[in-house]
Amino acid sequence: MSRYIIRRLLQAIPLLFIISVLLFVLMINTGDPLSTLGGRRVTRPEDRERLSRQLGLDQPIYKQYLFWLIGNDWTKVDMEGDGIAETPGTRKGILRGDFGTSMVQRGKAVTEIILDRLPNTLILMIPAEIIVIILSLAVGVYSALRQYTVTDHIITGLSFIGYSMPIFFIALVSMYIFGVNFKAWGLPYLPTVGMFDPKIGKTTGQVLLHMVLPIFSLTVISAAGYSRFVRSQMLEVISEDYIRTARSKGLPNRMVITGHALKNAALPLVTIIGLDIPLLLGGAVVTESIFAWPGMGRLFIDHLSRSDTPVVMGILMMISVAVILSQLITDIIYAWLDPRIRYS
Amino acid sequence: MKIKLWLIVMTVLIVFSLVMTACQPAATPVPATDEPVVVEPTAAEPAAPEPTAEAPMEAPMEPQVVTFAWTQEPDSLHPFYTDMWFSATLQQLYLCWAWEFDDQNVAYPNLVKEIPSVENGGISADGLTITLHLRDDIVWSDGEPITSADFKFTYDMLMDDANSVNSKYPYDALDSVEAPDAQTVVMNFPEPFSAWEANFWRGILPKHVLQPVFDTEGSMMGADWNLAPTVGCGPYIFDEWESGSFLRFTKNENYWKGTAKIDDVFLQFVPDDAAQTAALLAGDADLGTFIPVSDVPTFQDAGLTVFTVDSGYAEGWFINFRDMASPGIRDVVVRQAIAMSLDREAISQDLLLGLTHPVETLWDPIAGGAYVSPDIVPWKYDPEAAKTMLEDAGYIDTDGDGIREYKDGSPLVLVHGTTIREIRQDIQAVAQQQLREVGIDLAIESQDSDIFFGGYADGAPPAIGDQDIMEWSDSTYFPDPDTDYWLCSQLPSADNPYGYNYYGCDEKLDALFQAQIIETDPTAREAIFHEISKYMHDNVLWYGIYSDPDLWVVNSNLTNVKFSGVTPFYNIWEWDFAK
Q: CA of B517, closest CA in chain A: separation in Å?
């Protein structure tokens, strides 16, 4: 197993390199960060030319990538536009831990920008994922054990409804019902936007209260989908011979379901959750935008819309590393859960 | 055993989440500063509030907080590192301009004793020197006086390449700035610059804060002040900025006009329009802007106040008459027929709920239309007259498909481009239908903003001339009528890849625009703009669709609220909540 892990980690290096090249080329071609600089008017030509030079955007794409990767402190750049490269570069490159500075929030380090938002995303996404797992397991198992009963049909109907609704619809409807209308009707209501009420301050209670609607919106669709998956896996497993054997041996039904059936039915779910975990870092763009939750999803989309390559590349590379590591961890957990699986 | 392990893993994750909730990183740290020196207010302007009599000791009142729902988070709070409207608009909270603009968009002195003019000697007869006389009672929030040294420092920082500011305009029009004494600033121009009032001294930098940073680091680009301007000169001071979440300003006790009535201004970043609407309706926010026009009746029904504020912007069609444009759009007859084929009044009424109106020129929203020629006859919606014009000019539908052809038989197709904003796409659909009725085929396309407004080198469609008609909302250097969009020197090419004249070179127009910027006589300048506006209108070089005012929604409990189109929060220190 150790050799397997080491081999996978070594394979990750060229993989990350290829990913970084592809993403960088895509990012450079998504738009011009200097076109309006976020303003309502087109940037003046003199300013665009100057900024293009000063931010290194006038360099060929391979040079921009090279400076992003290994920095430019080993060379000099032409800042004044006189054709003479006499100003020493200041960047160290990502291989030395320098992700650069944002072109939107000029002077602010990319790592600082990301770390400002990452905890907010984890606060929202981890509880949401846990609730999705618990809910989908509970509902899926319950539904499978009562196949074709009225309860099963109701659960199936609700799952299809939940799964087919777009996230923005659920988010806005829940906001209007539990936020706007409940308040108008004189009922206890939930807050609509943000992480806390500024008049009260940022307390744990306030943050938890403001998490309710975003988490509800996030979990409805995922739980609906995963519960169907768990249900079908359970139905497949409980008809297996070893389950019949376990029952005929006199094991209690609870032990048969949880100790044998669920364990085997949940194995594929491990893979899906393993794929989900790195995506937790990316946040949920729509939910964060609607509920004004200051997370990674909004950070990504805000900086992508401004073609802020350093920040977007920082986020994408972080998620790429997380995907590779989570896949490795998933494989290890898989092997641990199922003794039949061995990696050479 | 394995189930226990799963339970342990779940528990750890839940505990981790709760710990993350409690252990939030602090918002942008506020650099430690000395306690501000509370300066006794000097003889105040007539508008300043009278100092109140000492009240008997009472329990401190809860601080009054006004909450803004802000749909775009600023990228910087440094006035020269941002072009975002959502950032520049905040400057009246924590910074100060030499002069600001009231709700009629008329300039009034702020840091200066009076607006310079030829009459008061502030502007030399040849227009090459402008002298500012500063008030002697103006101070930064830490008690340091604001002097001409701050103005000179601002100019020096703008012009230094090491600072990589967003734009040097209009300071690159200056020869030099001098500070002969603490209350005098002298601006020297190589040639007259008539648009000075609208463009200069928007945000003065505190020399005593930023000079040490510049001296140490060689640039102010990485200064903490850029994102945490704890020393300012507005009615409020920066307090806290949590990325993606909120910005908070607290009142400046040293503000020379008097302390603001509202204690805190809290900006909640709410990127989604529908969520902004919900927050305003639920009372979670007291003010919002850039609201969807379709939500205005909802706000009014809910008892909120909607302000319509002219900020010089007008939505219009910019016509491409360069060589690569289609022959049809380069024919003035076709352009005039287009002008008569679009029912702009219906667009304003049906798509914009009557909250705005058609405009004839880019100068309609400026100074009550003072720069618009009185001889202009507005284009009327008259598709029959348009058809007649096109027939007489030889554009006939020979094959009966409803689309007219050129004399060589090719169809009269024009390309219309814009951004992906919903209202623009609605207008495209209406225009396509209405132009088809007169026999013009409008091929419509749209791109994301940073692609649409990209440069010639990026192959942006407007820049390379792929579109015959380009639609967006724009303004002059409001409140000044100056614009350089139609200067021949701004045509983009391989040699001039950043030029932004995407329309064409008209020698007469170019000469008029060059003449107005150096014309110091206001009456003569107005006459030049009359000529410009009439020429552009009659030749349909720019076709106005609607006036694009800023919409502000405000909690009706807020009193004394006024908005300027140039400096929106110019009187925010007078705002208060109704008791």
A: 17
Report which of A127, A210, A207, A327 is spatially closest to residue B13, judged by C-alpha positions: A127
Radius of gyration of chain A (CA): 25
Q: How far is CA B151 from the centre of its chain?
A: 23
Residue B342 class from Cβ within 10 Å (0-12 exposed, 13-18 middle, 19+ buried)?
buried
Taking CA atoms, B570 is separated from A83, B44, B140, in Å, by 45, 17, 17
3-state helix, strand and coil shares in percent for chain A, rounded to the nearest 5? 70, 0, 30
Cβ atoms of residues A191 and A174 within 8 Å: no
pLDDT of B8 strictly over 90: no
pLDDT in tens, A72-111: 898 888 877 788 888 888 889 999 999 999 988 888 899 9
- pLDDT tens digits, A253-294: 888 877 777 777 777 777 788 788 888 888 788 889 889 899
In this complex, is the C-beta atom of A337 within 8 Å of any C-beta atom belonging to chain B?
yes
Is A139 within 8 Å of A223 (Cβ atoms)? yes
- Which pLDDT belongs to residue B43? 34
Where do we find the tokens 């300003």?
Answer: B249
For residue B413, the cross-strand partners are B441
pLDDT bin (cut points 50, 70, 90) of residue A162 is confident
* A163 pLDDT tier (thresholds 50, 70, 90): confident
User: In this structure, are residues B470 and B502 in contact, taking their beta carbons and an 8 Å threshold?
Assistant: yes
Are B252 and A154 within 8 A, CB to CB?
no
Distances (CA, A) of B18 to A122, A130, A208, A293: 10, 13, 9, 17
Rounded (10°) angle between helices A61-70 and A309-337: 60
Residue B22, φ and ψ in degrees, nearest 5 = -75, -35
pLDDT digits (tens, 9 = 90+) for B74-91: 999 999 999 889 999 999
DSSP designation for A180: I
B553-579: average pLDDT: 95
Scan for tokens 């000044």, then name that residue: B480
Gap between the Cα atoms of A279 and A285, Å rounded: 11
Q: What is the DSSP letter of A94?
A: G
* Pairwise CA distance, residues A294 & A121, whole Å: 8
Q: A87: helix, coil or strand?
A: strand
Instruction: Examine residue A268 and say whether the peptide bond preceding it is cis (omega within 30 degrees of 0).
Output: no
Q: What would the pLDDT profile of B364-394 be if each residue is shown by its tens digit?
A: 988 889 999 999 999 999 999 999 999 999 9
Token duo for residue B119:
């009459």
A120·B245 Cβ contact <8 A? yes
Token code pair at residue B373:
């020629």
Please judge whether A42 and B85 are an interchain contact, meaning their C-beta atoms are less than 8 angstroms apart: no
Prior bond to A119 cis, omega within 30? no
Q: Which of A39, A91, A28 is nearest to A61 (CA)?
A: A28
String of DSSP letters for A200-233: T-S-HHHHHHHHHHHHHHHHHHHHHHHHHHHHHH
Count CB-CB contacts under 10 A for residue B187.
24
Examine the predicted complex and report whether its ipTM is higher than 0.90. no
Chain B neighbours among A 96-135 (CB < 8 Å)?
104-108, 113, 115-117, 119-120, 122-123, 126-127, 130, 134
Asked if A46 and B168 touch (Cβ cutoff 8 Å), the reply is yes
Neighbour-count burial of A87, counting CB atoms closer than 10 A to its CB (0-12 exposed, 13-18 middle, 19+ buried): middle
Nearest to B65 among A199, A207, A289 (CB): A199
The verdict on a CB contact (< 8 Å) between A32 and B460 is yes
Q: List the structure tokens of B328.
A: 């049809």
**Burial state string for A178-201 with b = 16 or more CB within 10 A and e = fewer than 16:** bbbeebeeeeebbbbbbbbbbeee
Q: At B508, list the tokens.
A: 């007469």
User: Between residues 6 and 35 of chain A, which touch chain B (CB distance below 8 Å)?
Assistant: 30-35
